[in-house]
Design brief:
By secondary structure, chain A is of the alpha+beta class. Chain A has 3 helices and 13 strands; from the N terminus they run ααβββββββββββββα. In chain A, strand 5 and strand 6 form a beta hairpin. The N and C termini of chain A lie far apart (72 Å). In chain B, helix 3 runs antiparallel to helix 4 and helix 7 runs antiparallel to helix 8. Classes of the chains: A alpha+beta, B mainly alpha.
Chain lengths: 293, 175
């Protein structure tokens, strides 16, 4: 009898204790869930989340960017016109050089889709672009419906790589910015064959890092850094920026600080680049890697 | 009821300011104001922790979806919401918290108001930027980002409480 009584009391005490600490428990559970979700998120999850929120606020973002676009129209127009002229010239020289590929060119096409070599270019507008976080993303106003696919490269109209597409919805696409700590590409010193991994160290939106340049490479401040042809995303030879400074690491290689050719923050118009041979190339490369390992 | 409408309005405005303005302007990598925390900071003092925690969860999730940072805002906002009452009691005293009302500069006094806001904002920022960086390699960068961003956020929250909460609080004092 006494036993039952005390165990009842224990139960009541236990519930009183629970009542006292349930807020703390709830906090711990919620916080753990949030941390778990964050720890298991990848750039892909983040892109998915932005794609989802674009369904709701994409139109608003487009509206806001429209206002700021209006302010910059003059400068943008000039840059675009110059770029179109340059592209037209390149196109002309290609047409005259190789008439067998001329069936790919559709002069009546007004959607600004052009092909140069194995690369297709589509013009798009940036409607959302973060630069102040450690993992930044770019949202553009074209998606599946406009022929945009995951893995395509994003470059400025003047030809600087700015990222690549991670996820598309019907009308929008979200890309990883080069200002993302998970972004990887390779870069080389123009005019030489010394190359290394190109990444962002998260310290400034004006600079990127080019690492593992051998110490016997001839390098000078002001040298141009371009993309390599090791990428199945970016066309080779695109200017990334210029050498700002370089430091010899472990007496074996240089870490090069690269000043970006144009500011990512002022990005309004981009070209989406489709590499027509990407699938064939990736399949072949994966097959070989699969056989060896 | 009027208060619920006011807070809903403030929530919408600070969240919109965060997503459309502060996430888009190019201040610096070092300065990312997290203005939406104003909603948690300025909730009435008498609210029990469980309510603040629930509102913190809601704020965090909405901020996560809108800014595309899965879980990051929730981690920071939950902690800020959880610690809010304790910080308020430590800074303003049990009586003030019990009396309730909006924790604005007029009610708490400038000194105590800034002390309270700074602690919450710094805690929120430190968690946000540490979890965002997820590395000790750039700890000085993380600390600098936390400090500079928090200073701006505290300033912005001060403007917020002037804009939204001075009038109703003045009315409350007269009653």
């Amino acid at each position: 009898m006494i036993m039952t009584h005390s165990s009842e009391e224990e139960m009541i005490n236990f519930f009183l204790f629970l009542k006292r600490i349930y807020v703390v428990l709830l906090f711990i559970i919620l916080e753990a869930a949030a941390i778990h979700y964050y720890a298991n998120s990848t750039s892909y999850t983040r892109a998915k989340l932005i794609t989802a929120s674009n369904q709701v606020v994409g139109g608003l973002h487009a509206g806001f960017s429209g206002v700021s676009n209006y302010m910059r129209l003059n400068k943008e127009n000039r840059a675009l016109t110059e770029e179109i002229a340059k592209l037209q010239n390149q196109l002309q020289s290609l047409v005259t050089k190789d008439t067998t590929t001329s069936h790919n060119l559709t002069p009546t096409d007004t959607t600004l889709q052009k092909q140069i070599g194995p690369y297709f270019y589509t013009a798009a507008q940036v409607i959302r672009n973060s630069i102040t976080h450690q993992n930044n993303f770019i949202t553009i106003d074209k998606g599946f419906g406009d022929g945009i696919e995951e893995g395509m490269a994003l470059i400025t109209p003047t030809g600087m790589p700015v990222g690549y597409i991670l996820k598309c919805s019907d009308k929008f696409a979200v890309g990883m910015s080069i200002l993302n700590r998970e972004f990887r590409a390779s870069g080389k010193i123009k005019g030489s064959d010394f190359f290394g991994p190109l990444f962002w160290d998260g310290t400034s939106y004006e600079y990127m890092m080019l690492s593992e340049i051998p110490k016997y490479a001839e390098i000078a401040v002001g040298d141009t850094i371009v993309t390599t042809n090791y990428s199945s995303r970016f066309p080779p030879g695109l200017m990334i920026g210029t050498v700002e400074s370089f430091v010899l690491q472990e007496a074996t290689y240089y870490d090069v600080r690269v000043r970006l050719a144009s500011p990512i923050g002022a990005l309004r118009n981009v070209c989406v680049v489709r590499y027509a041979d990407a699938l064939e190339r990736n399949t072949l490369e994966n097959e070989v890697t699969g056989e060896i390992y | 009821m009027q208060r619920v409408i006011e807070y809903t309005l403030m929530f919408v405005i600070v969240m919109a300011a965060q997503v459309f303005l502060f996430d888009n302007i190019e201040l610096s990598v070092y300065i990312t104001p997290l203005i939406y925390i104003a909603f948690i900071v300025l909730l009435p003092m008498e609210l029990p922790t469980i309510t603040v925690l629930s509102l913190g969860l809601l704020t965090g999730i909405i901020a996560d979806v809108l800014t595309g940072l899965p879980g990051l805002n929730t981690i920071a906002t939950l902690a800020a919401a959880f610690c809010r009452r304790t910080v308020l009691i430590l800074v303003a005293g049990k009586e003030s918290v019990h009396d309730g009302g909006v924790p604005n500069a007029r009610r708490l006094g400038n000194g105590r108001y800034f002390k309270y806001t700074s602690i919450i904002v710094l805690l929120h920022g430190l968690l946000f930027f540490s979890f965002e960086a997820l590395t000790w390699h750039y700890y000085y960068l993380t600390l600098l980002r936390t400090l500079l961003s928090s200073i701006l956020t505290v300033g912005l929250i001060y403007c917020c409480q002037l804009l939204f909460l001075m009038k109703p609080s003045a009315k409350n004092e007269r009653i």
